[in-house]
Design brief:
2 copies of one chain form a homodimer.
Chain A: E1 8-12, E2 19-25, H1 29-47, H2 51-67, H3 69-80, H4 84-107, E3 114-116, E4 130-136, E5 140-143, H5 157-165, E6 169-172, H6 178-194, E7 202-205, H7 211-218, E8 224-228, H8 231-243, E9 250-253, E10 259-262, H9 264-283, E11 295-299, H10 302-316, H11 326-340, E12 346-350, E13 363-368, H12 369-374, E14 386-392, H13 395-403, E15 408-414, H14 420-431, E16 434-439, E17 478-484, E18 504-505, E19 508-509
Parallel strand pairs in A: 3-18, 5-6, 5-8, 6-7, 8-9, 10-11, 10-15, 11-14, 13-14, 15-16
Antiparallel strand pairs in A: 1-2, 3-4, 4-17, 12-13, 18-19
Helix pairs in contact in A: 1-7, 2-4, 2-6, 3-4, 3-6, 4-5, 9-10, 13-14
Chain lengths: 510, 510
């Protein structure tokens, strides 16, 4: 607790439950306040930096993370229980993300510059000179996520996007990986220093419980919040942010069961193959992905039987890996027990029993569409390698199941050519409910790209108008300002006639 | 009330307080529900229309409004008390806005199409084909505003932007101009029919009180809200929208005092001219503009004395026009009485007394910066032709006054060349607090253009990330969707390789 009951926290090795040295001091509420004040003071300096300075800073963070070398990989793998190969890939993604945002900053399109030149002779009234650019919102609070200790955490997507936008950042490191968090925070701090930026550009606090995070979101100098975590946590932050004297935007990624629709021709052609590939996606990283395929929807058929049989066989041979934390493991156990105990639900398979702490094996359940439509609890996320097959009577029932879903990060459809006509109206249903619609693939890979959307209608996120992955994420932390008739020497440099860079003049690319 | 206590409402002539025939039936809660259901049913059809269909629809609304001819002008002028010339200009703006959005829809840049082509041979993992477009949010609830019976009302900016984005719309017409509202709703309805669109594309309800509007915002099929009105009204809608099982975005434009900074050299050179021009802006439309200059900030000087003297003289000669409604008149009377009764405030001038219902004359007050900084009430909006001059000791105090302001729609600075160096840091302060920063002009004209921002940090609006005027407003009602590896014949037409239109491919214009 931040009030002094606990003065320090330790990392816990996910595979053993053992405490790892060293201890890390828990931040106080005074630390939160100091970090926010420093972030606000640094904001005016940082937002005024030119594109090159800001891009070089993002690249320097990437270099500093690389310099941490194998010790970062080892620490993150130990704290998270995720395999070294996965963490190594995640580091590459994190570094690549920082470099991609550096390129975005240099490109300048994010400024959305628009110029409507003066028309002094227009009748009945002259038109003033109008120039628009995007400006950063202000200091941003970022919450590290447990399930991506690098890519969605201290130097993850929200931090990279906010820094790219010109916002200073205060990170609350996730207490499940304090060592990883401290190493990354150190790397960012060194980059701040190397680049000659004010220290407050990046602030950092840590601690268990909700008190610090609540204080951060409630702090009057914080202008926006980025969060990846549970539905309960996200809803609490949304409420806090709205109850402030000055409400602020919250980008919370919360809850998604990522429906996978299996169309009849695809099932008939390759039901068993789909079943095996599905289990590979379901069990990756112990199922601890926001995009984990937690729901399978299909018309009952021989092909679906083959899918289920192959999936069950694959799952039964799957050895569990330890989950991220004891809390996540307990929640998974509760969620799967509730499904197993539901009279309308059949358990199709369980994975291998693990040894020691890796006690939670993967699970595959089935129910029918009538039961699913009658019980909202069956549509709730169980974070981990658990999924539910919903067997439908006919295509109309598939449509009804999909139409009844809450907002989702992803929606997947497996189909063959013969399925296209029947799939078309379903895609229309899915795109109203999801941020990403994918065909003949699995939702668990989220490419960091210009065209990626990792977002979606509530409750997948608190704000379906944006993405937390990909270059469009920079928009989260920007707002437009119009400058009317400003003398040229008082205009922001990028808005002058002489400045290069992409712009619309009278609505057309110049 | 919608519960049947009052079955109909009448327009009131603002200049006389007299009831105008005919009566208009008040909508019931069942009407709200029916309009929302129809809007939802129409949404899937309407969002799938091509750009030409949607653009032609917007243009047809403009034609239908033109066809209403002088009877619209007369009715709007009578209900609002605004001069015929102003209403005529506002009609032109409303029609021009619809046509500008038609051009935006045809241009296609609003779709923000991004394509990251597949890289099947990439190592260690192939990249899927990713295609992003913006899609409409869903049915939008729009609240007509009292002070712009055309441009911010039934067929105003929010309606035009939402329809352009592909959203169906349910308007709650403002009860202060039910006749104008009915004429415009009829015009839109005819355009819907002419264009062969489902009737639910445009829904309309009317009634006094808050019950209907609350039901509209709480309706599960509504996906976003546009509102222009009081701070209390906007805050209530924000709360309602957040308390829904599925929270939705609210774009409420609420409260702004639009600071005007007078720099020393400008004041010295033309203090009296500035004073007269200021009063022209202040009293336009009885001061009933969201961008009305309600605060003047300057260092005490001979130039400021000249400004005040000229402003006081101009104001003293100003004859009032009737205000929009009795409620607005009463609120103005209370607000100005509070200022007049504040011991720290001096009344510099009052306008001429009006006759009859035009009883509320313009007011100009002054105070000093110490008093202003000590009393937050002095920074609250008084809707109408009232303004407060804050006399500062020095430039540092000007800065302190500006830095202490809440979020604003606009911030204005009057300056001469000799003021530029001192103005530069003030502009930096102002752009953190306002959606539009203007030099050597007055905030009351809001150009409908590509580079306009009519928005700003809370409480100017509920969401400073957008604008309610100008073409960027279409973004309010859009969210991104990514399509991954979709077969070409299942892609939305604008996302295919063959489609024309602006797009980024791997982040670069194609």
């Amino acid at each position: 607790m931040a009030n002094g009951q606990t003065a320090e926290i330790y990392g816990i090795a996910a595979a053993t439950g053992q405490r790892i040295d060293p201890a890390y001091p828990v931040s106080s509420l005074a630390d939160v306040d100091a970090a926010c004040r420093a972030a606000d003071a640094a904001f005016d300096v940082y937002r005024a930096t030119d594109a090159e300075t800001r891009a070089a800073f993002l690249e320097e963070i990437a270099v500093e993370i690389e310099r941490l070398g194998d010790s970062l990989i080892e620490r993150a793998a130990t704290e998270s229980g995720l395999p070294v190969a996965r963490i190594t890939g995640e580091r590459g993604r994190t570094i690549g993300q920082l470099r991609l945002f550096a390129a975005v900053v240099r490109d300048g399109r994010w400024r959305e510059i628009r110029i409507d030149p003066a028309m002094p002779d227009r009748q009945p009234l002259p038109r003033p000179d109008l120039r628009l650019r995007m400006v950063p919102l202000g200091p941003v609070a970022v919450f590290g996520a447990s399930n991506f200790p690098l890519a969605f955490s201290t130097a993850g997507g929200d931090t990279a996007a906010a820094l790219a936008a010109g916002c200073s950042v205060v990170v609350k490191g996730h207490p499940a990986h304090p060592g990883t968090d401290a190493m990354i925070a150190g790397a960012i701090g060194r980059a701040v220093s190397t680049c000659g930026l004010p220290a407050g550009v990046f602030g950092h606090v840590r601690g268990p419980g909700n008190e610090l995070g609540s204080a951060l979101v409630a702090h009057p100098l914080i202008a926006a919040v980025g969060f990846t975590g549970s539905r309960g946590g996200g809803l609490a932050l949304m409420r806090l942010a709205q109850e402030r004297p000055v409400p602020i935007p919250v980008y919370a990624e919360m809850s998604s069961i990522n429906p996978v629709v299996l169309m009849p021709a695809a099932l008939a052609a390759r039901g068993a193959d789909l079943g095996r590939a599905f289990v590979a996606s379901l069990t990756m990283g112990a199922g601890q992905f926001c995009t984990n395929p937690g729901l399978v929807v299909a018309v009952a058929s021989d092909g679906l039987d083959a899918f289920e049989a192959a999936a069950a066989a694959a799952l039964a041979a799957h050895a569990p890996q330890p989950m991220l934390t004891a809390g996540i493991r307990d929640a998974y156990a509760r969620g799967t027990a509730a499904l197993a105990g539901n009279a309308a639900v059949t358990q199709l398979a369980t994975g291998l029993a693990g040894d020691g702490i890796a006690s939670e094996n993967a699970r595959l359940f089935a129910t029918d569409a009538d039961a699913f439509l009658a019980d909202r609890a069956l549509g709730e996320e169980v974070f981990g390698a658990s999924s539910l097959v919903v067997r439908c009577r006919d295509a109309e029932q598939v449509r009804a199941v999909l139409a009844g879903l809450e907002g989702q990060l992803t929606a997947t459809i497996h189909l063959d050519q013969a399925d296209h006509d029947a799939a078309r109206p379903l895609i229309s249903v899915l795109e109203r409910r999801a941020g990403r619609v994918l065909a003949n693939g699995w939702p668990t890979g989220v490419e960091v790209a210009h065209a990626m959307v990792h977002g979606g209608p509530f409750p997948a996120t608190s704000d379906g108008r944006s993405t937390s992955v990909g270059t469009l994420a920079i928009d989260r932390f920007l707002r437009p300002v119009c400058y009317q008739d400003l003398p040229a020497d008082l205009l922001p440099p990028e808005l002058t006639d002489e400045a290069g860079g992409p712009r619309l003049v009278d609505g057309h690319p110049a």
